[in-house]
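Person: At home tonight, work slowly through the protein below, taking as long as you need, and write a paragraph about the fold.
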Amino acid sequence: MSGRPGTGGPDDDGPVALTVPDHDPRRRERPTAVPVAGNRRSHPAPAHLRFFHGPMDCGKSTLALQVDHNQARQGRSGLLLTQGDRSGQPRISSRVGLTREAVEVQAGTDLRLLVRSHWAEGRRVDYLIVDEAQFLTPAQVDQLAELVDESHVDVWAFGLTTDFRTRLFPGTQRLLEVADDVQRVQVEVLCWCGLPGLLNARVVGGAMVREGATVVVADTAPAPVPSTGVPADADDGDDVRYQVLCRRHHVRGLLEPTPTGPGQLALR
């Protein structure tokens, strides 16, 4: 009596194991562990360029420090970069009190050489945290992309979306063009009227201005007190501050509630 393999007949020698060859070299060469950044170019360990953006006060620097904390907890070594921090010092500082020392980036800094210099000194750089990324030049953003693609260094960049004229910063525009992942920071900032604040207003001597240098480092001030229409910290002379407004009040240039209510005429 004849039989087929696996059917229980007299010719059945038991189940036949079939081996399918794996022609995908990526599976055969996959490393068992992610190497440090200086040695990752020879391994298929993908990296990404991620950009988080939003208006002032939305928590970008806080998120940057949180990402650094999470990465460092997993044994990774990062390099923190900033430019024009509100503290006036080479550090990343948040309004909730968190702060970390950072490397101050200048317009002429080659970010590729900066990372490679750390490697040459035997220091690991697995990732970069870039705060105030709106101040980067387009060429520096391309350098970050090269570090991601060629050296497998992960990059997290955090920056403002638009300047006080509602125009994209050059660094922001380039990041929006080339980043692998772009996210608007989800912490909602409110205009004094209660609507979501989307735009940054520059205030000089208590008045909103629409002309001037693109980069003037200053911080935001407390919102006006609705009952009086007077800011908590009144402007003194030509002091510069920033205030986040909704689109409607940014267009109108209104920094605080008017004495008359909505829809009412002011008698003069």
Residues 189-257 form one domain. Helices lie at 25-28, 60-73, 111-120, 138-151, 170-178, 247-252.
